[in-house]
Amino acid sequence: MFSSIGVIGAGTIGRAIAGHALRAGMSVLISNSRGPETLTAVVDRLGPGARAVTVNEATAADLVVLAVPFVNVPAVGAAVANWQGKIVIDATNQFARSNPYSGRADIGDLTGSEWVAEHLPGAVIIKAFNALFGQYVAADPRQAAGRQIVFYAGDDAAAKAGFGQLLDTFGFAGVDLGRLREGGRLMQLDGPLSGLHALRQD
């Protein structure tokens, strides 16, 4: 279903997902807030198939990964002219501060991903990859004891099915937690699944 992936945010999580995508034969468009000219070293490390682009250009990929500090989401949303129909993996966590990461942003009754969706109008949001520390996202998900579990949630069944297949291609064991509000609340910062490192025994 997906042959290209656009990564917004070139930190630990963004680079890790980009690496899995490249190993799966996908093309990667990676971006950050400072512009593609600052990503030369990142692209060189990722290797063939990766290209540094603007945030807007990254959204041209089949699948978009949002891996930026939570407080930067409004700026990312404003940088893209049209989010309509774009499938976006929300890997953010709702920290009130990003340097250092601390505190929980007060967004009322909304879950983190519902708040993200408000800033990316028309996008199809799937919450994923936020519950794991970066080292576990980057590592080979196929381990002797089983495969690394990645929890995900969203409201679009077809998009989730495609994402689940992609996780399997990467080697992860995907666990669908249902709709964005209920499943996202389990995964988000302070939720019962946040920071949970688990393996599926295949």
Strand content: 25-35%
List the uncertain runs.
none
Helix content: 25-40%
Q: Could you state the CATH homologous superfamily?
A: NAD(P)-binding Rossmann-like Domain
What spatial form do the alpha-carbon principal axes imply? globular
| H-E order | EHEHEHEHEEEHEHEEHEHE
For the sheet with most strands, the description reads:
10 strands, mixed
CATH topological fold name: Rossmann fold
Describe the fold and architecture:
This protein has 202 residues and is an alpha/beta fold. It has a single domain, classed as NAD(P)-binding Rossmann-like Domain (Rossmann fold, 3-Layer(aba) Sandwich). Helices cover 32% and strands 25% of the residues. It is built from 8 helices and 12 strands. It has helices at 12-23, 40-46, 55-58, 73-79, 112-119, 134-138, 157-170, 180-187, and strands spanning 4-8, 27-31, 50-52, 63-66, 87-90, 95-98, 101-104, 124-128, 142-143, 146-154, 173-176, 199-200. Strands 1, 2, 3, 4, 5, 8, 9, 10, 11 and 12 form a 10-stranded mixed beta sheet that branches. It has a two-stranded antiparallel ribbon with strand order 6-7. The longest helix is centred in the C-terminal third of the chain and has 14 residues, at 157-170. The protein is globular, with a radius of gyration of 15 Å. The protein starts with a strand and ends with a strand. The mean pLDDT is 95.
